[in-house]
Design brief:
By secondary structure, this protein is α+β, with helices and mostly antiparallel strands. 46% of the residues lie in helices and 14% in strands.
């Protein structure tokens, strides 16, 4: 049967792959790599001749878990039955391109394709021409982490990894803000604190509430600065899971 056939083929390959894996590493075959390549960073090892198997097998070493901007970047799912909604949102985007600020709220039961619809819009815009797309993802596990969606966006946009030294992270954040057209030291300081980077804040922002208000104003200025050069689409994913500070912003 099918299950038996899969087991008969998969077990020898996985067992043989173990023989070429060094300690504390994970090695996978090409068939597995095709399924997980968007969620993992892989290093090709080239064709490998494995004992007991006819012909060489392309092998890949797993380096680390990838950090896609959106959870849909790590999956390939077709969009079904949302053409009318996509066309409606596209028309709203076209009005935004003409300078008319637009707001679209997508709501519905879980699993009906809301996120996939938004991803389809972003894919369409990416293929159609120049624009700036900003994605903020909210999570039920991060509702006690103030403004976490904004912090995670700045980390991705500035290419700040978990192992990036603090001094390099500040430089990358400064470069990002300068590219957006807002090279202000105040915004750099406020956003650095948002990312947990060690930087000295002006005296007027030592208290939490003035700092929060100034950070919100800085994020709005960040959007406006980007919009001066090209249209900007701002997406909040799972807004109902946002932390209180993000909702107030």
């Amino acid at each position: 049967d099918l299950v038996t056939g899969v087991q008969t083929c998969a077990l020898p390959i996985s067992a043989r792959l173990q023989s070429i894996a060094t300690p504390n590493t994970v090695v996978i075959a090409e068939s597995t790599a095709k399924l997980v390549s968007k969620g993992l960073e892989l290093e090709p090892m080239g064709p490998q001749v494995l004992k007991g198997l006819p012909g060489a097998v392309d092998a890949f070493r797993v380096l680390r878990v990838a950090e896609p901007e959106s959870r849909f970047d790590a999956t390939v799912l077709p969009m079904v039955g949302r053409d009318d909604e996509l066309e409606m949102i596209t028309r709203r985007w076209q009005r935004a391109e003409r300078g008319e600020c637009q707001l679209v709220f997508v709501a519905g039961e879980a699993g009906i394709g809301k996120s996939r619809l938004v991803q389809a819009l972003r894919d369409r815009l990416k293929a159609s021409g120049e624009h700036t797309s900003v994605l903020y993802q909210c999570s039920p596990f991060l509702q006690n982490s103030a403004m976490r969606p904004f912090a995670e966006h700045f980390r991705r946009a500035a290419q700040i990894g978990r192992e990036t030294p603090d001094s390099d992270a500040v430089v990358r954040l400064r470069t990002l803000l300068a590219a957006a057209g807002m090279p202000t030291e105040q915004s750099l300081a406020l956003f650095s604190v948002l990312l947990g980077l060690p930087i000295e804040l002006p005296v007027e922002f030592q208290d939490a509430e003035p700092r929060r208000r100034a950070t919100v104003a800085g994020i709005a200025e960040y959007w406006r600065a980007m919009a001066k050069s090209r249209p900007v689409v701002v997406v909040f994913e799972d807004l109902h899971w946002a932390d209180p500070s993000t909702l107030v912003a």
